[in-house]
Amino acid sequence: MAMWQGAMxxxxxxxxxxxxxxxxxxxxxxxxxxxxxxxxxxxxxxPPLDGEIEEEKxxxxxxxxxxxxxxxxxxxxxxxxxxxxxxxTIDWVREKSRDRDRHREITNKSKESTWALIHSVSDAxxxxxxxxxxxxxxxxLAGLIDISAHWMTDLKEGICTEGFWFNHEHCCWNSExxxxxxxxxxPEWNSWSQLLISTDEGAFAYIVNYFMYVLWALLFAFLAxxxxxxxxxxxxxxxxxxxxxxxxxxxxxxxxxKWTLIIKTITLVLAVSSGLSLGKEGPLVHVACxxxxxxxxxxNKYRKNEAKRREVLSAAAAAGVSVAFGAPIGGVLFSLxxxxxxFPLKTLWRSFFAxxxxxxxxxxxxxxxxxxxxxxxxxxxxxxxxxxxxxxxLLGIFxxxxxxxxxxxxxxWCQKRKTTQLGKYPxxxxxxxxxxxxxxxxxxxxxxxxxxxxxxELFNDCGLLDSSKLCDYENxxxxxxxxxxxxxxxxxxxxxxxxxxxxxxxxxxxxTIFTFGMKIPSGLFIPSMAVGAIAGxxxxxxxxxxxxxxxxxxxxxxxxSQGADCITPGLYAMVGAAACLGGVTRMTVSLVVIMFExxxxxxxxxxxxAAAMTSKWVADALxxxxxxxAHIRLNGYPFLEAxxxxxxxxxxxxxxxxxxxxxxxxxxxxxxxxVEDVETIISETTYSxxxxxxxxxxxxLVGFVxxxxxxxxxxxxxxxxxxxxxxxxxxxxxxxxxxxxxxPPTLKLRNILDLSPFTVTDLTPxxxxxxxxxxxxxxxxxxxxxxxxxGIITKKDVLKHIAQMANQDPDSILFN
Length: 816
Description:
It is a single chain. This protein is about 50% helix and about 5% strand. The protein has 29 helices and twelve strands. The strands form four sheets. The chain has a four-stranded mixed beta sheet. Strand 11 (about 780-785) and strand 12 (about 790-795) form a beta hairpin. The protein is elongated, with a radius of gyration of 31 Å.
């Protein structure tokens, strides 16, 4: 029988054999999450839904038994039926239908007894309880990560003699020998040169501190990459591209498992502490989603339904952003705008609750000791003026240019890593980048400090008591005039800080390109914000000095008089941070809300909106994809972007398989094939499923059956019924076909047949087909002509066609 090649490619079975139900596959060789050499041996993280398949033996035939009764599985569920193989897409329509049936059954039973009513109430409440647990666990882990990373970052520079577990700030809090001007210096805190050579002065002491800084950075980076490589390859990167793909319906078993959670939490602390140009905010979304996935296994409602589980993961992503930025509302909007594929109103409420609980938990832990959820929380009090929209828009243009430049260069570097020998040496790559970063960072105080502390310094609105170099202004004013400080001429410290920040900007721009995508947990939010904040602070100080020395210019004289507080450089830093983050991620609404929640000032929403929209327009003009969509495409994930429109005039017949002159479509008949016939088709093909027709002559469509369900059902029948043999007839009809006497018992498999597969005609425009796949989350769609089956279109076929129409390589779509 001629077999149709190329459609519905499922690698779960090797051609020609049934040697293992979960055999090793070529998909696993193709898999390359950014930054890891993949090892898929740890399948215990996420067991198959609906229970484990009992005794997953090799698939073999069976002997002739003595019983002749018909096997009918309508009465009892078969373990494993309705679940999915790894690296396959879920059927959203079937999952939602199963959940409606489950809910309908519970509702009907609740009227029969008090116990059933209690069960119905607990089922309805279970979603909120799950959100509570996710919020508590996510907030607790975020607090642990914040405290640990702060301590280990300070460990590179010294140690507290009163207790090694204190970071620099906590060590000097209770010291009686510290002054306000030198509040960072106390006898309890010793640098490594003081500990090793008993002095902190001179060139040798500087070299000792330099050496220890680089040594600690290399040690932290080595531990991080080694743990990821050995225990959890999925723990690398930010995780957001993969989470977007998973939320769209793709199965990556183990990506949100317990080992990934444990290793990601540990290595995230190590990676941040190493001083690399990365952040913990993106990986915190991955950590929160791991929490959500693991806790789903405590509730049958979510454990047994992949679509319901993805609603929970959407809420968990919101909780992750909530604890990353201290922005619960921004977290909900981030999940809605950036990562979620299916986001019903119920999920919106639950996401809000999960984000609220997570933020409350983190606030209770108070990891930074300032009663805030993030290190760089800031409040501004000076109003902005209409003219300042011009520099704000300039920052937006800079953010868009930086975003487009970063995406192109980072993707090119990651592509080089995937296609050359570089990708085979992840540990060496991480150590080299860490060594370069540490060596270049130590001499400059703004690169030596953690990136979160740098952003906090740049956002800061200078006051009288600030001792930072950025606040080293000449005080030429009468302090009796009022509380607000007027614009002042820059002092020596400000000019020194400016050129140091310029060098920091260059280093951050270059080194972040090579850091993001390595084999360690690495977020992009904080490095992007740092680049924008530096550019914004530089521009803000320039505007401030321009207004001070030229307040009589026409652009200033109407609103900025001499001795007034006109320009707030910290506000420019905040707007620049938003612009660069928006340019890289293409976030808009959620970005503005996150930044608003960081500052607590409603009056700064317009500058943030102007910068965010400008950066998105500029970046979109240079490249349509954000960084996460670019990495999804780079890795060949089957993600159908809902935001893009399909504008080409092709038809379903142009995309479907088989094409003209191809072998015929492989189908099953409804009541004339034996067990042996079906087993032969399964063993000789790798398709994920098969259309069922009335007969090969009529090609009238009856339904669609999944390969996995077929294998499990036949194997189950052989175990439980001795009479089922290779010559037994398999039928998918309601009633058994007439059979001659003394024939083996028939096998009824109507219960695994999808009787309402989605179909389109061969002349259906592809723009409609693409919309159907996007909005319904289909795995496949059958193509008919005058009611006769012609072919099939899979999600992978749609993605390949879109890539081909965009002049991209269609073979870049690696997974089905």
